[in-house]
Amino acid sequence: MNGQLSDPSAEKKHTVIVYIFNMSEDVWPFISAMSDPNARSAEIIENSYLGDSRMFQFAGEDSDVLYITSQSVSEQFLAYYRSLFPKTNLTVLTTGQHSGMICDDILHDPSIMSALVDAANSTKKLVLTSYAVSQPFLQLANALREKGLTITTPEAPDEEDAWTVNFFGSKSGIRQLAQQSEHEEPDFQMADGVICFGIEDASKIAAIRYVKEQGVVIKTNKGHSGMGVEIFRPGDLPDEFHACQAKIYALLQKDSYWQKFPIIIEKLILISNSVAGGNPNVEFKISRNGHIDFLYHCGVLVTKDGMFHGIEVGHDIMPERIAARIKDTGFYIAERFAAAGYRGYFDVDYVAGRNGEVYVAESNVRSTGGTFVYTTAVALFGENFMFDTYLFSNNGYMISHLKRLTFPQLLERLRPVLFDKTTKEGLILTSENLLRMQKFSFIIFAPSKKRAYEIEAMMESLLQND
Asked: Do 323 and 454 fall within a single domain?
């Protein structure tokens, strides 16, 4: 356990916010179905290393925050965080066990359970939040209630409505919603596709589409950060059906999740890079009372293979008509989610086609890789930050060419480009734990896109070989 609340002897009269970073829990069926045990273990570990970056979700928060993660956070990183956001009273607790199912780990960790009871103080109340709503999260909330505490979960649906998380957050669920909505909301379009089960049929259907169209996208029902998505472009597969089908089948055999979950085969959309890099996105939050708040629109930064690595935010990253369209469609989807009982954060990923159309790709029904970037921007620039700054984030900038750096060493090395509260531009480091994998994460803020990339170029210069 990293620490205790800053003033344990004082009887606090307000409610403490508890946040649990449970990224692996969100996609546990997918992780469990990974065939390679080493890859599965590495995925759980990498997910846990992202925990310190989600502390930025509380940038500017003026309540006491009890932040629970499976990886410790150093005093140096906490000091850096507090230098940026001195009003945030955040205390980190670390589980003794790290199974990937952190809510289960908490339930079986007497010291953390005791800390949660203590945090409730005389009010006997806690606000319980998390990266994602999982069954273990709901079980933990009930276990705390059984201890006599009043537990509120403002960013989670009621237990009977928790099905909305996995249903709408799956590729098949959002596709079904689109099909149901085609007459009511014609802008709610998805790439032409089908849902099937089993790699035999999936490989045949995908091969037929590829041979006809020289492109196809294959998705498992609920992947993670680009895993479980295969994108095939012209020249990637044989032009002859049987050879094409055999190659796809062999690929799908490699991981058992393809055989355990529904598979979606879609038309490959040729993207327009001029519209938010081809991957526009909107994020919303549905409050406990069902009120819907639009938070921001952005471009999602992905690799050629579809792996997420950050977001780009600025008022001019896409034409106004596209921004208005994805926002309106997002509101329609939010209304459907809210009516079904979902509460909390979610986003909608789109693909901008060269044909001028915008297609819904998926919805992440949880906090996202952009939520903590958004809260950081609001803390520094206010609610209208999209008009006052340009920003982009990177969740994994590799520095494997350097000998291993400690966080203080990295901080010192990048000092010339670090965020300056006076000029309101520069780089904010958002993780220390990723240094164990010889990479780090950051957000760059600047008055313009051009200036932001100048700062990144300066950063890269400072990270040249020793």
From this structure: yes
Domain of residue 301 covers: 276-462
| Amino acid occupying residue 395 | N
**Do 242 and 351 share a domain, yes or no?**
no
The residue among 94, 126, 155 that closes a domain is 155
Our count of domains for the chain comes to 3
Is 61 within a domain? yes
Question: What DSSP string runs through 236-250?
Answer: SS-SSHHHHHHHHHH
pLDDT in tens, the chain (466 residues): 555 444 443 444 477 999 999 999 998 988 988 888 898 898 899 999 999 999 999 998 988 999 999 999 999 999 999 999 999 999 999 999 889 999 999 999 999 999 999 999 888 899 999 999 999 999 999 999 999 999 999 999 999 999 999 999 999 999 999 999 989 999 999 999 999 999 999 999 999 999 999 999 999 998 877 788 999 999 999 999 999 999 999 999 998 899 999 999 999 999 999 999 999 999 999 999 999 999 999 999 988 777 889 999 998 899 999 999 999 999 999 999 999 999 999 999 999 999 999 999 999 999 999 999 999 999 999 999 999 999 999 999 999 999 999 999 999 999 999 999 999 999 999 999 999 999 999 999 999 999 999 999 999 999 997 6
**Residues sharing a CB contact under 8 Å with residue 399, sequence separation 6 or more, in sequence order:** 405, 438, 439, 440, 463
**H or E element in which residue 393 lies:** strand 390-398
Residue with tokens 């990293």: 2
The whole model's pTM is what?
Answer: 0.93
Do residues 255 and 292 share a domain? no
User: Within this chain, do residues 285 and 343 fall inside the same structural domain, yes or no?
Assistant: yes
